[in-house]
From TrEMBL:
Pfam families: Response_reg. Keywords: Phosphoprotein. One of its GO terms (biological process) is phosphorelay signal transduction system. Gene3D superfamilies: 3.40.50.2300, Histidine kinase-like ATPase, C-terminal domain. This is Signal transduction response regulator, receiver region domain protein. Residues 59-172, 183-226 form the Response regulatory domain. Coiled coil: none annotated. SMART domains: REC. The keyword Cell wall biogenesis/degradation does not apply.
Length: 226
């Protein structure tokens, strides 16, 4: 487990792990990390090759005070077509969240001044930002607090890249303001199942129209065009 964690951190920083093994004498692991300048060059080169010239996807606000971590997140998101804005403090995050109205926010907990928990509370109290999905990405392993304060998701660093991108893609598929205009027709002859669907979709802002059978569903589909 320890070696696996070391490997993830080394790869995250652009390095690699090697192994020298001699039968009867044991094994020796060695770590190679690029110098700060080399790391920056590698990141910029990779981003230039893989990222769209002008990402035109949903805007994600990355709240992260560590420059290297912010750059890694920004490059990763831009490669997937997201537009990215970075905030380096809690105060800056609140200003940018209200003025830019991002489709989603990634939030570190350890920030200068106001910490991430304070930022999350403020975002959820403000009518202008309370519906913006907030994904907490931090080394602080406390998902209970994150969800209690209104976070949509929680990841412990080093983050699983694919899972984070999948979640952000889901959250930014449409904003809550757009969701409210979407009408969903739920068809099921089980009243409990319909109630579950209504509660689940309704909590996300969708307007749910119910039909207990096929004939009624066809009538609603023709009249309401969900």
């Amino acid at each position: 487990l320890g070696l696996a964690l070391v490997h993830r951190y080394v790869v995250l920083h652009g390095g690699r792990i090697g192994l020298d093994s001699v039968p009867g004498h044991g094994s020796r692991f060695h770590v190679m990390l690029p110098l700060p300048g080399e790391m920056q060059t590698q990141q910029e080169s990779a981003a230039a090759q893989a990222a769209p010239e002008k990402p035109d996807g949903p805007l994600v606000l990355v709240v992260e005070d560590d420059q290297q971590a912010a750059d890694l997140l920004r490059h990763m998101l831009q490669r997937q077509g997201f537009r990215v804005e970075v905030a380096r403090s809690g105060a800056e995050a609140l200003v940018k969240a209200t003025t830019l109205q991002p489709a989603a926010i990634t939030l570190d907990v350890i920030l200068p001044g106001m910490d991430g928990w304070g930022v999350l509370q403020a975002l959820k109290r403000d009518v202008r930002t309370r519906d913006v999905p907030v994904v907490v990405v931090t080394i602080v392993d406390d998902p209970q607090t994150a969800y209690a304060l209104g976070a949509s998701d929680f990841f412990v660093k080093p983050v699983d890249r694919k899972m984070l991108l999948d979640r952000l893609a889901r959250y930014t598929f449409t904003t809550r303001a757009e969701v409210r205009a979407v009408k969903v027709l739920a068809v099921d002859d089980d009243a409990d199942a319909l109630a579950l669907i209504r509660e689940s979709l309704g909590s996300e802002g969708f307007t749910v129209v119910e039909a207990p059978g096929g004939r009624r569903a066809l009538e609603i589909a023709q009249s309401d065009q969900p």
